[in-house]
Amino acid sequence: MSLTKLTCRLWLQRVSRIKKGFCSKVPKTPIWEELDNTKIPNVPQIDQEMINHLERVSLVEFNNQAGIERLSKAIESANKLHMVNTDGIEPMESVLEDRMLYLREDKVTDGKCKQEVLSNAVKTIEDYFVAPPGNIPLKTKERDYGSNSNGS
Amino acid sequence: MAASMQKISSHICQLCKRRYLTFKHKRSSSNLKSKPWKSVVGLEIHAQINTESKLFSGAENKFGGPTNTQVSLFDAAFPGTLPVLNKGCVEAGVLTALALRCTVNKVSKFDRKHYFYADLPAGYQITQQRQPLAVKGHVDYCISDKNSFETKTANITQIQLEQDSGKSLHDEKDRISLIDLNRCGTGLMEIVTEPDFSDGTDASAFVKELQKILQTIKTCDCKMEEGSLRVDANISVHKLGEPLGIRTEVKNLNSIKSVSKAISFEVKRQIELLENGGIVENETRSFDTEIDETVPMRDKEVKTDYRFMPEPNLPPLHLFDSESVKTVSSKMSVINIDDIQQKLPPLPEDTRKRLEQQYSLKRRDVAVLVDNSGLVDYFEDVMRLSPTTSAKLVSNFIINQLLGVLNDRKLTIYKCPVKTEDFGKLIDLLHTEEISYSTSCKVLDEMFEHPNIAPKDIVDQKDWRQISDTQILTNICEKVLEEHPKLISKYRKGKLKYLHTLVNKAVIDSNNKANPRILKQIMEDLLDNK
Q1: A-chain residues near B318 (CB < 8 A)
Q2: Do B257 and B391 lie in a common domain?
Q3: pTM to 2 decimals?
Q4: What's the first-to-final CA gap in chain A, in angstroms?
Q5: How many A/B residue pairs have CB atoms within 8 Å?
Q6: Total domain count for chain B?
Q7: Pairing of strands B309-310, B111-114
């Protein structure tokens, strides 16, 4: 117990020292700025076609009034970002962008776990996953390989 | 003034009842017809990287393993798994970029490209869209047919690293797809070219050259039949001097022949469509090798929205040169571009140029030597062992005779029983006219049967030595002339072809052993002096 208290006190000391040493860029209290709403882009009209498209690409269902309202609010909220001045600033995609990307040696260390890989499959045939028919070439004339055997 | 006046009308497609707008240029159609069509082709080539393991996982990367055994949990997109980049794939990508004379980006980034398909469990493919591994390269390649031989340059837009997808087997009867994820996550280099190709022959010649380059640097085995090199072609046609037409994409061409045939067919199809007043649709097609035609894919989506976004699990990939590498403390994940440049072996075009200069060979012959793997080594070995031999004769004999004999016997040059030393001796015999050209072919055949007997011994045993002694040849000629006075008079009347007949008769009289060049000379002299 006493050890915990001690480390806790040491940590508090360190925090206060850091506070003295550095000047944080984050303001201590929130600052509110009024945005000029006329400059923010309007929320576009969301029609059925757009909803269908979004549902398809996001695999999220929101095809009801509440869903459309939520989407409109999200767009409205995101649109405020247009007011931030980002001239001449390179976009940051990751806080790790200055770090080295770790590279693995080219060796086989994984795989050979068919059982686990297939464990979530609803249906399998001879170790294959079974899926609905995919995007396959449209044949101009249906080449019916069965037609000959029908005749015979 | 030059701005073309457009008349907009519409027609309704009989099949799909869709309304199409047609833009009619006011410039008279006869003017349009007189201008030739021009086809423009750009390629996207997917080359599987020849590594032990996959791009982001340690699962084995080998063709034809048992179904779903070369799959790690990451490849199957289990939640919580993360990508770890394979150093070997990056090195192979950089080597390829240098071989294609690209500028390698010191920093490249990974992106997610989203689409839903059963052979892509994660719902997205990790690729390099915004900042690829390398940009702006060029490749010299040769196009040859019977009459012409041309060297062209194709420009490479970019090379990016990306994941391959799994494989689907379509069962049309039961309306299901069977999915094998063994290929899922294999490292790919996508090589994108500028629209620099004019037709199928042109594009396929480039693919052939690329294949040779990748095989030389061993970054891809390029077995198109196994799918380790796949070509997508973007094709459009337009009238000369007008903007490019609407393009179609023909996907997954998996042989050189298919590349050539699919593009030729698609160009023809588009021209016919446009000449009949139709409109080319921007669509994805596939090539049916059974009927040699391109066919549309079943799904005709609106423009696919791939929703590209930065891959959050992979920070940017940094590469170094000999200068910047000094600033790095840990050498573990470091790849030095300059080191890889050192490892770059001579490329096919380098070899062609060297052979041309070193042996003064014709470019066409050099191209044949380089085209067939192992032939250059064989040729150079012959030249090294008998440096006095005529290089031209050696290369001609390899191309015109040796290759044929090897083909007949279904052998590769690596299994050729004729030692390069003996081959050189055979060419020496031919060069010094000790044997005739036709005899040398027979000797070559014998050498395949009895690889341990020296060509000289074969010639002696079979008594195939050519007669070049002028006295003996003069005797033969005189005898022939005595026997055929009619032919002499015909020749004297100006029918020069009878010289040939006489020479032939003399050759037969000598049991095919007379040196035809000297014989002809003697015969001519005798005829003209008599």
Answers
A1: 100-101
A2: no
A3: 0.78
A4: 91
A5: 170
A6: 3
A7: antiparallel
Task: Evaluate whether residue B94 is within a structural domain.
Answer: yes
Q: Does B315 lie at the interface with A, CB-CB under 8 angstroms?
A: yes
Report the pLDDT value the prediction gives residue B468, as an integer from 0 to 100: 76
Quote the Cα angle for B201-B205-B210, to 5°.
150
Other residues' Cβ atoms within 10 Å of the Cβ of residue A104: 18
Same domain, B242 and B114: yes
Q: Token pair of B411, please?
A: 């052998």
- The answer to whether B148 and B202 have CB atoms below 8 angstroms apart is no
B 262-281 residues with CB below 8 A of A? none
Residue B511 to residue A97: CA distance in whole angstroms: 83
Q: Give the residue extent of every domain in chain A.
A: 31-83
Host H or E run for residue B461: helix B455-462
Host domain of residue B380: 348-462
Domain identity same for B179 and B75: yes
Interface probe for B, chosen from A138, A141, A143, A144 (most Cβ of B below 10 Å), is A138
Q: How many CB atoms lie within 10 A of CB A26?
A: 4
- Among B175, B315, B334, beta carbon nearest to A94: B315
Rama region for B276: left / alpha / beta (φ>0; ψ in -120 to 50; rest): alpha
Tens of pLDDT, residue by residue over A32-90, are 877 777 888 888 888 877 887 787 777 777 767 777 888 888 888 898 888 888 899 88
Residue B475 and residue B423 in one domain: no
Query: Whole-angstrom distance between the N-terminal and C-terminal Cα of chain B?
Result: 81
